[in-house]
Specification:
heterodimer; A: alpha/beta; Rossmann fold; 5-stranded parallel β-sheet; globular; B: alpha/beta; Heat Shock Protein 90; 3 domains; 5-stranded mixed β-sheet; 9 helices; 12 strands
């Protein structure tokens, strides 16, 4: 695998999800860092400078993930990492049973580079990651 | 508590009446508009949507009673009060029967006017409180449903995620017997998740919240979107899926999210129960009051004795040839609930061995917003 040194960050409040996806990513030789919420996520992003971020958008309040993504892409604070690709991990089916539609653009929020549904299938995850890392 | 100024329209052909009412009401802080006849009065009511309207029963031109009826049609929340004189007492009673809230009898003192207005405003206050309580109740119910759904689904999602890890061989080698059992377990988990989703849909629908916001929906766009999304599934099952004809308007009055669910469910079924090399043809046609959508498949069909029960909860046509018993059995129930909530209808005709036709009728959307 080409990107064996790529560092992936997982931001999700479910420790089991972090655990499961960490083993998926490590099996493909990615380096993994994790954070349990957006606040810790912010600090770690700036410290670790991951190559890609998997961001759960269903933590606490619905907009934590959205505003973090927007901040990464647009705010001065994150300008050193603003080109980091972000994949929304949508457990929207978990919350509402419906297919997810990013409506944040209406509010002028910068959206993610891709979406993936829980439960995450390893091959699907790898192909999305690779696609974004190639850019 | 916000204090909004209340507005009143006074419709009376007598200038002195209009002037004195305006003077008294404006002094009391009301935004007041007057009109000298029914038609200009109705124009103002339409534009301003006041809280109260005072209508003189004896006017040339459109009668006070007709104005009253038209005001109620414009907005049934407007409080209409009729003004009567001695010659119009009987029409006053008639006015009450037709929905006037109160009667102001000429000649009246400023005090009497104020009293009647106050009673009208109290009524408005009660309406508003009732409405805000209803909204609060709905929000609590929706929050409850969201909470329950999160609590039910969250552990299941975590479990299925671990299944993906194990079945992917990522946590170590999986021997065939293990794999077999894990795959079966995962299938059961997915069914459980689907069942929860369906029950929560039904709970939300019974709460009455789904079809609040009816808009003009383009069925062509909506169905094309579903066709796009389900084409891969259809191709995998060697079924051709297409929106084959549209005649007339395709604009229905509805809520697109829930209608998407209906058509997604019907098309999914049409694929699932179809034969290899089969087809699914979808037709949209404009009819007198409805837009009718037909979904025709060349599937195994449904025997006549099952048809009356098809939309019942959990009803399953048990067939020996049907090995694909996936799904919760609630899909058609939910579809019917949604369509019914739209004041539409859904039914099916079928020929076993040949195929089925599901027909959905939805109210046509007209160009004007007032239906």
């Amino acid at each position: 695998m080409e990107n064996s040194k790529a560092k992936i960050m997982i931001i999700d409040d479910d420790p089991d999800f972090r655990d499961a996806v960490t083993s998926i990513l490590q099996s493909a030789l990615y380096e993994v860092v994790t954070a349990p919420n957006p606040e810790e996520g912010k600090k770690k992003i700036l410290k670790e400078k991951p190559d890609l971020i998997l961001l759960d958008i269903m933590m606490d309040s619905l907009f934590d993930g959205f505003s973090l993504c927007n901040a990464i892409k647009t705010s001065k604070e994150f300008s050193s990492v603003k080109n980091t690709p972000v994949i929304f991990v949508s457990a929207v089916k978990e919350m509402t049973g419906s297919r997810f539609q990013f409506k944040g653009e209406d509010q002028g929020l910068s959206g993610p580079d891709d979406y993936i549904d829980k439960p995450v299938k390893p091959d699907d995850l790898f192909s999305r990651i690779e696609r974004l890392l190639k850019k | 508590m916000k204090k909004r100024k209340h507005s009143i329209v006074v419709i009376d052909d007598e200038e002195s009446m209009r002037d004195s009412c305006r003077m008294i009401l404006e002094k009391d802080g009301f935004l007041t508009e007057t009109a000298e006849n029914g038609s200009s009065g109705l124009t103002k009511v339409e534009k301003i949507r006041p809280d109260l309207v005072l209508i003189d029963l004896k006017m040339p031109g459109i009668s006070g009673l007709d104005v009253l009826e038209k005001v109620k049609k414009i907005d049934s929340n407007i409080i209409p009060i009729v003004i009567t004189g001695y010659a119009t007492i009987e029409s006053a009673v008639e006015a009450m029967k037709r929905g006037a809230y109160d009667i102001l009898h000429k000649p009246f003192t400023p005090g009497e006017l104020r009293l009647i207005i106050k009673r009208g405003l109290d009524r408005i206050k009660l309406f508003r409180e009732a409405e805000s309580l209803r909204n609060e109740k709905k929000m609590i119910e929706e929050n409850f449903i969201t909470m329950v759904s999160h609590q039910l689904r969250s552990p299941l999602v975590a479990i299925t995620q671990y299944f993906e890890v194990i079945l992917g061989g990522i946590a170590g080698e999986v021997v065939p017997r293990q794999k077999d059992m894990l795959v079966k377990a995962r299938t059961r988990l997915n069914s459980l998740l689907e069942l929860i989703n369906d029950w929560l849909d039904i709970a939300r629908m019974d709460g009455g919240s789904i079809v609040d916001k009816l808009k003009i929906v383009s069925l062509e766009d909506l169905i094309n979107k579903q066709v796009e999304f389900l084409k891969p599934y259809a191709e995998k099952n060697k079924v051709t899926l297409s929106l084959s004809s549209i005649s007339g308007s395709d604009k229905a009055l509805g809520d697109s999210d829930s209608l998407e669910q209906v058509f997604s469910n019907l098309i999914n079924n049409a694929i699932k129960y179809n034969k290899a090399d089969g087809t699914i043809k979808i037709l949209i046609k404009e009819e007198e009051d409805y837009i009718t959508t037909e979904i025709k498949d060349t599937g195994i069909g449904i025997r006549e004795e099952h048809i009356p029960y098809l939309f019942n909860q959990f009803y399953r046509v048990s067939r020996s040839e049907d090995k694909k018993q996936k799904g919760s059995g609630l899909g058609l129930t939910i579809a019917k609930k949604i369509v019914d909530a739209h004041n539409g209808s859904i039914h099916v005709t079928s020929k076993p061995g040949k195929g089925s036709v599901f027909t959905v009728q939805l109210p046509k959307a007209y160009n004007t917003i007032t239906q």
